[in-house]
Amino acid sequence: MTLKELSKLYYLNKLIERDTLRLQELEAQLSPGSMNLSGMPRNPSPKNMMEEIVPLLIEVQARLREEQAEYIRERIVLEEYLRSIEDYQVRLILTLRFVDLMNWRQIAFRVGGNNTEDSVKQRAYRFIKDSQKK
Question: Which listed residue, of 62, 76, 85, 120, carries a Cα 20 to 30 Å from 33's Cα?
């Protein structure tokens, strides 16, 4: 498995976070407190907020479901790959980095044994590079 494939989970997760926030914003706009219920228009060309927001809400919900399904599929592939790694320390390092999305300092602390950011990073990248040669 390549570094690019392993890193894909991070970006997929960021996309899901972005869509989740957008969905929350749209839902907040639909809440009764955010709508003009007085019947008086706020601007010269009033539009029905429901007509504008509901289609966006449906689109974001659909995209979020698709991305979450893709994320789950990718995560299953990644976890199967990680379970196949015989070196437990490398398995732990890669799991903490690519599944738990920790930074190298957090990983070094978690792994312990006088490991540094650079040593765990180097160990991970060396393993990935060597596994691609096989």
Answer: 62
Q: First-to-last CA distance in the chain? A: 11
Using the predicted structure, report yes or no on whether residue 124 has a pLDDT greater than 90: yes
Pick from 44, 106, 98, 59: nearest CA to 75 = 98
pLDDT tens digits for range 42-64: 555 555 667 777 888 888 888 88
User: What is residue 82's DSSP assignment?
Assistant: H
Distance of alpha carbon 87 from alpha carbon 64, whole angstroms? 36
**Helix runs in the chain, H state only:** 3-30, 49-83, 88-98, 104-111, 117-133
pLDDT of residue 53: 77
